[in-house]
C-alpha cells in the first residue's frame, strides 16, 4: 500500500471516528453510553502499554501503578480544588514524574527485561498495600480523606475548564473521554511517524546497534516509559471521572494482567489492536458479570490461551493480513515493523 | 607537534573475564588514514579488543586514547559520537526496519533533514541495495544484512572504522567489492579490519597486526607477516615461543 493511500485511509478513519463519537449519545441509551465511556477510558490505558510494549519493547507488568496514581492524583486534587482542570493536569504530571524516577533507576541502572517486569509488578503491589492501609482520619491530603480500602467516594467529576459550577453531563463525559482517546491515538500515530518514533522502534529492535550509532538507548527507553506513564495517568483521571469514585483496587494486579491480555488479543505492535482487544474483552467480562453461569477469570484465561495458540498475532494484524491477501496485485504489506519474537508472551498471567 | 598525536593509542590494555585473560597487556597505535588488518586464530582476542575500543566492554586495566582523549570506560554511544564506527562480528542491524530506515538511523545524526534523503540514497547505491531499500532487513540474506551493517557504519561517517570480519559469508565477487569499498574509504579515513580470509587481506592490507592468545605476536607489513614462520605456526595450531 503506498503512502498516500494509507494517509487517505487514516484521514478518512479519523473523520468517521469523530462523526461516530458525536452521534453515539443520540442512538444509545444511558446505560450503554456509560459502559462505552468506561471502555474508552480503559482503551486509553491500553494505548499507554501498547505504546511502551509494542513500540518501545518495554513490558511493564505494573502499568496500573501509573493508572492508579493518576486516578488518586485526580481525586485528591479535585476534592481540594473543587475544579477538575488542575486535577486533570496533575493526573498526568504526577505519574509522569513517578515514571521518570522509576525509569531512571531501571534504565540507567541497566536492569534487564525480566527484572523490569519484576520491579514494575512489585511497585504496583507496594502502592496497592500502601494506599490500602490509609484508613482513618490521620490519612488526609488537604481536605481529601484517602479512606484506605474503602477508597474515596463522591469525587467531583469533570467540569467545564476553569468553570467548576458547570459539571459535565454523561453525554459530555462520553464526548470528552472518547475524544481524549482519539487524541491520544492520533498523537501516538504522529509521534511514531516522526524521527523520534523511528528511533524508539530502532532501540527496541537493537539496543547495541543504536548505541554504536551514537544513540543513548537508556534515555530513549526512559522517555518512552515516561510518556507511557503520563498516558496511563490520564486514563486514571478518565476512569475516576466515570465512576466518581476511586479505591485501591485501581492498582490491582488483575487489572495489570488484563491490560496485557487486551494487547495480546488485539495485536501487539499496533495501536488500533489493543483498543479493539480492550473493548472486546471488557464487554465479555461485563456480560459474564451480569449472569452467574461462568467465572469471568476462567473465560479470560481461556480467551488468552486460545489467542496465544491460534492467533498469536492478535485480532487486528490477522484481520489486516487477511484483507491485504484479498486485494489482488498488491505486494505483501511490509510497512509496519513487527516486534521481535523475543518479546515475552504473558502466558499464565493472571 | 599536533599531528604526532596518533588517531588511536591503546596502552597496556588488559581484559579479564574471571580467570580468562582475553586481552593481555596490548599496546596498539594507529595513525590517521591508516589501514590496518588484525589477524589471529579464533580466541586470540580480536573481537574483545574491538569491544573495549567501542565501549561494549570496560577494560580491566590500561588506557585507550582517541586523538589524545581517553575513551576507556565511556559508554558506547559517547564513543560513537566521538567518531568511532564498528561493524560487529555477529551482524547488529535493526531487523524489523526497512533497509532505508536502517541507513537513515545512521545518517540522521550528522545530516540535516534536507540532506538525509540524498545521503541515504548514496549509501544504498554504494552497498548496492537500492532495489531492496523498502525491504524489511530480517527478510534479507546473511550477506545482504552484512552490507546493511557496513552501510550503516559508512553512513555515520566516523573518523575511525572498525570492521569485524566484513567478508564473512560473502561470495568471491562480493568480497572483491568489499575490498574495493574499503580501499576507497581509506582515501579519507582510518580503518581497522579483522579478517581470516588471507586473499582478502592481500587485496587490502598494508600493515598487519597478529594477535595470539590475547597478545600482539607480530606487527609488520603484509608480506613479512605472511612469510613469518611464527604466524604460520599459530594458524596451524603449533606452539609458539612468542
Characterization of this structure:
- The complex is a heterodimer of chains A (350) and B (242).
- Chain A is mainly alpha-helical and 350 residues long.
- Chain A has 13 helices and 4 strands.
- Chain A has one domain.
- Chain A is 69% helix and 3% strand.
- In chain A, helix 1 (3-27) runs antiparallel to helix 6, helix 10 crosses helix 11 (272-289) and helix 11 (272-289) packs antiparallel against helix 12.
- Chain A is globular and about 60 Å long.
- Chain A starts with a helix and ends in a 24-residue tail after the last helix.
- The model of chain B has no long low-confidence stretch (mean pLDDT 89).
- A 6-stranded mixed β-sheet of chain B has the order 6-7-8-3-9-10, with helices on both faces. A 4-stranded antiparallel β-sheet of chain B has the order 2-1-4-5, with helices on one face.
- Chain B is of the alpha/beta class and 242 residues long.
Question: Can you give me a brief rundown of this structure?
Answer:
The complex is a heterodimer of chains A (350) and B (242). Chain A has helices at 3-27, 30-55, 63-81, 84-108, 113-132, 170-193, 195-205, 207-212, 217-243, 253-266, 272-289, 296-310, 315-326; strands spanning 140-141, 144-145, 159-160, 163-167.
Envelope shape of chain B: globular
Looking across the biggest beta sheet of chain A, what order are the strands in?
Answer: 1-2
Backbone CA Rg of chain A: 20 Å
The chain-level mean pLDDT of chain A equals 89
Largest interface: A-B, 23 and 31 residues
What's the order of the H and E elements of chain A?
Answer: HHHHHEEEEHHHHHHHH
Q: What is the terminal-to-terminal distance of chain B?
A: 35 Å
Largest sheet data of chain A: 2 strands, antiparallel
What would you call the quaternary organization? heterodimer
Head-to-tail CA distance between termini of chain A = 39 Å
**Biggest sheet of chain B: strands side by side, in what order?**
6-7-8-3-9-10
Strands of chain B, count: 10
Overall tally of structural domains of chain A: 1
What is the correct CATH architecture of the domain at 1-73 and 194-242 in chain B? 3-Layer(aba) Sandwich
Relative helix content of chain B: 25-40%
Amino acid at each position: 500500500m503506498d503512502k498516500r493511500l494509507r494517509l487517505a485511509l487514516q484521514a478518512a478513519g479519523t473523520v468517521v471516528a469523530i462523526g461516530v463519537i458525536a452521534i453515539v449519545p443520540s442512538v444509545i441509551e444511558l446505560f450503554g453510553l456509560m459502559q462505552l465511556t468506561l471502555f474508552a477510558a480503559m482503551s486509553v490505558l491500553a494505548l499507554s502499554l501498547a505504546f511502551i510494549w509494542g513500540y518501545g519493547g518495554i513490558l511493564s507488568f505494573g502499568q496500573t501503578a501509573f493508572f492508579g496514581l493518576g486516578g488518586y492524583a485526580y481525586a485528591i486534587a479535585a476534592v481540594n480544588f473543587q475544579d477538575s482542570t488542575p486535577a486533570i493536569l496533575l493526573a498526568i504530571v504526577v505519574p509522569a514524574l513517578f515514571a521518570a524516577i522509576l525509569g531512571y533507576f531501571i534504565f540507567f541502572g541497566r536492569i534487564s527485561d525480566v527484572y523490569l517486569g519484576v520491579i514494575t509488578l512489585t511497585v504496583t503491589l507496594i502502592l496497592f498495600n500502601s494506599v490500602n492501609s490509609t484508613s482513618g482520619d490521620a490519612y488526609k491530603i488537604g481536605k481529601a480523606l484517602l479512606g484506605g480500602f474503602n477508597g474515596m467516594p463522591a469525587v467531583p467529576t469533570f467540569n467545564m475548564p476553569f468553570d467548576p459550577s458547570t459539571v459535565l453531563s454523561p453525554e459530555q463525559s462520553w464526548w470528552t473521554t472518547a475524544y481524549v482517546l482519539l487524541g491520544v491515538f492520533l498523537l501516538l500515530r504522529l509521534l511514531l511517524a516522526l524521527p523520534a518514533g523511528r528511533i524508539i522502534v530502532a532501540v527496541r529492535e537493537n539496543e547495541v546497534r543504536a548505541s554504536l550509532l551514537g544513540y543513548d538507548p537508556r534515555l530513549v527507553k526512559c522517555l518512552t516509559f515516561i510518556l507511557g506513564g503520563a498516558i496511563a495517568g490520564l486514563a486514571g483521571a478518565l476512569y475516576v471521572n466515570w465512576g466518581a469514585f476511586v479505591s485501591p483496587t485501581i492498582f490491582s494486579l488483575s487489572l495489570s494482567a488484563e491490560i496485557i491480555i487486551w494487547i495480546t488479543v488485539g495485536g501487539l505492535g499496533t495501536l488500533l489492536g489493543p483498543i479493539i482487544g480492550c473493548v472486546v474483552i471488557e464487554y465479555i467480562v461485563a456480560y459474564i458479570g451480569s449472569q452467574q453461569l461462568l467465572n469471568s477469570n476462567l473465560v479470560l484465561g481461556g480467551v488468552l490461551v486460545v489467542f496465544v495458540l491460534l492467533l498469536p498475532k492478535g485480532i487486528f494484524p490477522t484481520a489486516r493480513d487477511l484483507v491485504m491477501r484479498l486485494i489482488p496485485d498488491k505486494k505483501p504489506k511490509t510497512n509496519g515493523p513487527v516486534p521481535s519474537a523475543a518479546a515475552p508472551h504473558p502466558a499464565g498471567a493472571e | 607537534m599536533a599531528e604526532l598525536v596518533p588517531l588511536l593509542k591503546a596502552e597496556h590494555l588488559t581484559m579479564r573475564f574471571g580467570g580468562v585473560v582475553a586481552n593481555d597487556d596490548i599496546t596498539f597505535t594507529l595513525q590517521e588514514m591508516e589501514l590496518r588488518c588484525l589477524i589471529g586464530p579464533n580466541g586470540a582476542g580480536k573481537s574483545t579488543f574491538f569491544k573495549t575500543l567501542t565501549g561494549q566492554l570496560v577494560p580491566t586495566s590500561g588506557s585507550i586514547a582517541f586523538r589524545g582523549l581517553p575513551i576507556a570506560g565511556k559508554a558506547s554511544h559517547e564513543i560513537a559520537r566521538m567518531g568511532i564506527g564498528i561493524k560487529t562480528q555477529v551482524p547488529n542491524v535493526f531487523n524489523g526496519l526497512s533497509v532505508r530506515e536502517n541507513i537513515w538511523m545512521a545518517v540522521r545524526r550528522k545530516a540535516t533533514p534536507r540532506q538525509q534523503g540524498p545521503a541515504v540514497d548514496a549509501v544504498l547505491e554504494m552497498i548496492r541495495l537500492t532495489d531492496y531499500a523498502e525491504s524489511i532487513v530480517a527478510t534479507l540474506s546473511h550477506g545482504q544484512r552484512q552490507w546493511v551493517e557496513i552501510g550503516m557504519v559508512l553512513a555515520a561517517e566516523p573518523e575511525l572504522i572498525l570492521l569485524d570480519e566484513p567478508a564473512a559469508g560473502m561470495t568471491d565477487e562480493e568480497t572483491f567489492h568489499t575490498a574495493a569499498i574499503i580501499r576507497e574509504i581509506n582515501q579519507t579515513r582510518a580503518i581497522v579490519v579483522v579478517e581470516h580470509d588471507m586473499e582478502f587481506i592481500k587485496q587490502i592490507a598494508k600493515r598487519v597486526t597478529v594477535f595470539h592468545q590475547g597478545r600482539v605476536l607480530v606487527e609488520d607489513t603484509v608480506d613479512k607477516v605472511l612469510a613469518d614462520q611464527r604466524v604460520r605456526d599459530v594458524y596451524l595450531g603449533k606452539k609458539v615461543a612468542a
